[in-house]
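[Meeting: bench + compute handoff]

Bench side (C.D.) handed over the final construct sequence. Compute side (W.E.) agreed to return the predicted structure before the next meeting so the bench team could plan truncations. Sequence as handed over:
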Amino acid sequence: MTGKIDSHIVFLATTDLSATAAFYEETLGLTLALDQGKCRIYEVAEKAYLGFCATAELTSTEGVIITLVSRDVDAWYQKLKTLGVAFEKEPTHNPEFNIYHCFMRDPNGYLVEIQRFEDPRWH
């Protein structure tokens, strides 16, 4: 092995960078780490980033889940409901994966999950 990985960025496509920016910056409150014009990169956690790049056509969002891990799923749910976010699934325990989570969609149709691991190894 030549070296360790220093950080992590997942890039996703968007046909509406302005609506996407408003959702991730204003609604979710993520910090804009870098504006490259056609791409915007958000800090999700220390050295973990989520990037969105403008494209003319978004072919599919199927199978993509953006998961934001937080110990306080209920507080996020209440805050986002107050901001008018429509949820596909209210906070609930998922015994199969031993998690507590809820789901919404971003302006691109990507499924966004806010999740807490119940497994003590993740606390």
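W.E. noted at the follow-up: The chain has one domain: 8-122. C.D. will use this when planning the next construct.
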